[in-house]
Write a structure and sequence with these properties.
homodimer, 225 residues, alpha/beta, Rossmann fold, Arc Repressor Mutant, subunit A, six-stranded parallel β-sheet, elongated, DNA-binding, CheY-like_superfamily (chains A, B), DNA-binding response regulator (chains A, B), DNA binding (chains A, B), transcription (chains A, B)
DNA sequence: CCGCGACTCCGCCCCTGGGAGGAGATCGCC
DNA sequence: GGCGATCTCCTCCCAGGGGCGGAGTCGCGG
């Protein structure tokens, strides 16, 4: 059971290099090459590979979009090709976008040949694999995102009184001062006071920013309405 | 420059096994052992290791909490020990919790000795590393989060023109009409027109509701700012 | 007891925001 | 060519939002 691989990179030399590395492995076969995203999508459709080695920076259609087309098609069709993304630098934007696009792996181009081959085998089995520096970044984002969700008290939010948080929640539901007043059985003036306090305490300008802050801080979250 | 490691597991036999594997490496030294979370935290404080090999299931204080204490202390103190979590099963809850707690790595206990040693070296360098099956799960969660953002078209949103969506995004970042105008190089009047169209098309009253809608529809999501 | 913080309420003033209504430019499609 | 959609810009109007200053009640803790 050989692993069918397609190489996608706009530099022919690089493709040749990878091909030589991979052809040396008995269980891996390079069945196709592509120089840009559009070709890649066509090749994948035509050749039904197991793994696509994808450069992220390419002309015509970039690697992210190509990854989306290829990996995304797995939802309807059964056997989608797994995409292993390669890049020279570990630029944030590309990493995040590629992973969201459904890539199964992400390696830097300076990866040792052994690691590349090992990565292809892992990915062909349906697992996933990231370069350590990227894993680290992912985990950082992961760790950074949740503290704010577990205890929705990112410092500044802790300065608000109970009532102010209550008002902020209602602001974040798009309610006007009058509506909030009716909801809380207080006068509109009182609501304005609370809103004012929230704004000054959080260093915000208007209720729109307050609503945004409520979502960003995790105080309210999508779907909770 | 040897890597100082502490082993944390409630099974003495397992600790001995790991110790034998690691002591065979010239650049790794096992400087301590602990049988539960509380001991682990003490040992880390006392011995200042580089890497903590942590079992996730333990009496007294579980691995997640211990990880939180150890990795979390890195925010104030400078050199926090990196935590490499080990587990028998790749149970979702533990994985997610441990990663959120700040673990730098996650491996299954059936990992080959070579891989374990390699993982410790990677983590000692400040990078991160996950078992492929866990990487896969992480990416799936990652990718699963986006589909709703890829087609942010809960019917009504589809009625907006490209420009209107663009304006809506900026409104959802708390920007005023004047700021949006500056950002898009158009007049404030134009922005007001677009905002007005967005409101009427979506059946909303003001820009606050528009911002809320942007979050609720998945057009923008927390953390994406 | 007195101070302090939280919550409540008032009036005044100004500015942003949003509605109404119109208009010119470009593009693509019939 | 004509038509619709999109994007752009304008004026007039006024209600709501937010800053500012002031003030009253309650409960807690020094």
């Amino acid at each position: 059971m050989t692993i069918r691989v397609i190489l996608v990179d706009d530099q022919p030399l690089l493709r040749t290099g990878f091909r030589m590395i991979l052809e040396a492995e008995p269980d891996i076969a390079v069945v196709g090459e592509a120089a840009d995203g559009e070709q890649a999508v066509e090749q994948v459709r035509a050749l039904q590979p197991d793994v696509v080695l994808m450069d992220i920076r390419m002309p015509r259609m970039d690697g992210v979009e190509a990854t989306r087309r290829i990996a995304g098609s797995g939802r309807d069709g059964e056997n989608a090709a797994r995409v292993l993304v390669l890049t020279t630098f570990d630029l944030d934007e590309y990493v995040v976008e590629a992973l969201r696009a459904g890539a199964s792996g992400f390696l830097l181009k300076d990866v040792p040949a052994d690691d590349l081959v090992a990565a292809i085998r892992v990915i062909a089995e349906g697992e996933a694999l990231l370069a350590p520096s990227i894993t680290r970044r992912l985990l950082d984002m992961y760790a950074a995102r949740l503290p704010s969700a577990e205890d929705p008290t990112p410092d500044t939010l802790a300065m608000l009184t109970e009532r102010e948080v209550e008002v902020l929640r209602l602001v974040a539901r798009g309610m006007s001062n009058a509506e909030i007043a009716a909801e809380l059985y207080v006068s509109e003036t009182t609501v304005k006071t609370h809103v004012g306090h929230v704004l000054t305490k959080l260093g915000l300008r208007d209720r729109v920013q307050a609503a945004v802050y409520a979502y960003e801080s995790g105080l309210v979250r999508p779907g909770a309405i």
